[in-house]
């Protein structure tokens, strides 16, 4: 279920990703994303750790060769244990 939510969120964020364009090309872009991370253990008795979250990124290009990018993301541990 969680995988389907991330696929839908990723598809929607890709559809709404907009690079700012006006009369002249602007050197800014803003994006939204979903993150998912799984740490799989080789031990059969240990549960895998799963993390998920969202991200916001911004990019500003000063020229064709130099750009500055900032990203903020937040991951939460998905604990499905009943204890």
Which spans have pLDDT < 50 for at least 5 consecutive residues? 19-23
Q: What's the number of extended β-strand segments? A: 4
Provide the gyration radius in Å: 18 Å
How would the global form be characterised?
A: elongated
Strand order, biggest sheet? 1-2-3-4
The level of helicity is 10-25%
Strand content: over 45%
- In whole angstroms, the N-to-C terminal distance is 22 Å
Mean pLDDT: 76
Report the order of strands and helices: HEEEE
User: What does the largest sheet look like?
Assistant: 4 strands, antiparallel
Structure annotation, total helices: 1
Tally the structural domains: 1
What class do helices, strands and sheet pairing give?
alpha+beta
Structure description:
With about 80 residues, the chain is of the alpha+beta class. The chain has one domain (about 1-75). It is about 15% helix and about 50% strand. It is built from one helix and four strands, in the order αββββ. It has a four-stranded antiparallel sheet. Mean pLDDT is about 75; it is low at about 20-25.
């Amino acid at each position: 279920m969680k995988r389907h939510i991330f696929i839908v969120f990723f598809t929607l964020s890709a559809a709404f990703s907009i690079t700012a364009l006006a009369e002249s090309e602007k050197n800014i872009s803003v994006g939204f994303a979903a993150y998912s991370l799984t740490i799989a253990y080789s031990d059969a008795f240990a549960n895998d750790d799963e993390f998920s979250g969202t991200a916001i990124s911004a990019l500003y290009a000063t020229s064709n060769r130099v750009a500055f990018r900032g990203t903020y993301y937040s991951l939460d541990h998905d604990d499905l244990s009943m204890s």
